[in-house]
TrEMBL record:
It comes from Mobilicoccus caccae. The chain crosses the membrane at residues 16-45, 80-105, 111-131, 143-163, 175-198. PROSITE patterns: PROKAR_LIPOPROTEIN. Keywords: Membrane, Transmembrane, Transmembrane helix. This is ABC-2 family transporter protein. The keyword Transport does not apply.
Length: 211
């Protein structure tokens, strides 16, 4: 828990984007246009996966990790936990909005889209974090650009075809949850794979780099 608290402070170096994301989500929830919050939520969670990996170059937080004797492996695994915790907090916020909208009788389609975007952003953030430890700069950049294109395609489609016209948002959400293999499920499996397989790979790669 001590390592997690410190790492959340490290990710907090991007706290301005986080505050903006929460305010946008709450504001959109009040106005009933939650689809407008999708891009900022995706950007915030994905950015958390790009937090600096090197303890020595992480400023006071990285120095404090070293002083407190937090092992490098624990620090690396905690980076993954931080991204998951932030995504989970945004999911709880989405659940609160869903309950409020249900009580008000509003259409929950934008909320389902919010959760889908959050799952994709979590997967992308964890993948970026893994590549930050295990891949070359060229590979990281190529994959990051590819993920950005996918994220933009998912989050900006409603705007390209007419934001909040009802059918456009609903059609996109229907595609994201469509059977037999819903893209949301695929993204969730990617996130689980990046968390369970990527984390040990990152620990080993970071240890070899230090040696």
């Amino acid at each position: 828990m001590r390592a997690l608290g410190l790492d959340l402070r490290l990710v907090g170096s991007r706290s301005f984007l986080g505050v903006i994301a929460v305010l946008v989500v709450v504001g959109c929830a009040v106005t009933g246009s939650l689809v407008l919050a999708w891009p900022i939520v995706a950007g915030w969670v994905s950015a958390c996966g790009l937090a600096h990996r090197d303890m020595e170059q992480s400023g006071r937080v990285g120095a404090l990790q070293s002083v407190l004797g937090i092992p490098r492996g624990t620090a690396v695994r905690t980076r993954y936990a931080s991204v998951v915790v932030i995504a989970a907090a945004l999911a709880v916020l989405g659940a609160v909005i869903a309950l409020a909208w249900t009580a008000l009788g509003r259409d929950l389609t934008p909320v389902w889209g919010y959760f889908a975007v959050l799952v994709f952003a979590l997967a992308f953030g964890l993948i970026n974090l893994t590549l930050g430890y295990t891949a070359s700069t060229g590979v990281r950049q190529a994959v990051a650009y590819g993920l950005i294109v996918i994220a933009l395609a998912v989050t900006l489609t409603p705007f390209m075809v007419g934001a909040n016209t009802g059918w456009s948002t609903a059609a996109l959400v229907e595609v994201l949850y469509a059977a037999p293999v819903p893209p949301v499920v695929v993204a969730g499996l990617m996130a689980i794979a990046a968390l369970t397989l990527g984390s040990p790979m990152a620990v080993r790669a970071h240890s070899r780099a230090v040696l």
